[in-house]
Design a protein that fits this description.
By secondary structure, this protein is an alpha/beta fold. The protein contains six helices and 15 strands.
Amino acid sequence: MFERLREDVNSVFHRDPAARNTFEVLTNYPGLHALLLHRFSHWLWGLGLKWLARTISTLARWFTGIEIHPGASIGRRFFIDHGMGVVIGETTVIGDDVTLYQGVTLGGTSWNKGKRHPTIGNGVVVGAGAKILGPFEVGEGAKVGSNSVVTKAVPPGATVVGIPGRVIVKRQGEDDVRRKQMEERMGFDAYGVTEEMPDPVARSVRALLDHMHAVDDRIEIMCKALRKVNAEYQNGELPRLHDEDFDCVRDEPDEPDEPDEPDEPGESGEPGRG
C-alpha cells in the first residue's frame, strides 16, 4: 500500500512542476485524493459492497469535483491534474502512467449492460475538456488534444484533435524515432512536434533536431575513424542540456529600465562632463 502511495506521489512530481514537497501534494492535490478514495471504493466494489463503494465515490466527488465510478479499473501512477469536472465511467479500464486534465470525460454511448466505456492504454495523455465516448481502445502512448471528442479507436502513439477527433500524428516513421532519441539525449521534450502543426517555432525546433541528429551521426563516424588510427583515442561524453540553459530565451516580463540620473552640474552651471 505504501509503495503504491509513494508511486502516486512521485508521479505528481514528475508531471507537475508546481509541486514543491510531499506534504503539499498529500494535502492539496484533489486528483491524488480522488485516486486514493477510488482505490478503497474499488476494493469494496470487488467485495460486493456496492452501495458502500458508491457512497464513498459520491463523497469523493463532493470533496474533489472528480467522479470515478468504483467499478472502473485504474493502473499505477495515474495522475489527474487540477481535476475539476473529470468523469470516469463504470467499465473504464485505464493503464499505467496515464495523465488526465480537468474536464475530461471517459463515458459511454449505450444504455446496454456490459462494456460501455473506453480502455485507455499505458502512457496516454488526455487534454483538458476532452471527451472519449464508447467501448473502444486508445492505444499506448497516444495523446488526445484539449476539447476533442473521440468516438472511435485511436492507434498507439497517435495524436487526436478536433470534433470529431481525427488522427494527425502516428509516431511510426524512422525519422520520428530518431527525433525522440535526440530529445531524450538532450534532456528536452519537444511535446510531439510534427510537420502538420502550423506553429513556426515548432517547425524550427523540428528542423534543429533533424540537423543535430545528422551532425551527431557524422561525429560518431569521425570518432570511429579516429579510433582506428589511434587505439588510445577515447570518446568524451556529450554534456546534457538543462532547463536553466534556456532561461535566456524564455518569454519573461521585461523589467522597466531605471531612469538615468542626471550628472551633477559643473561650476559654470552646465551639466558636468565626466
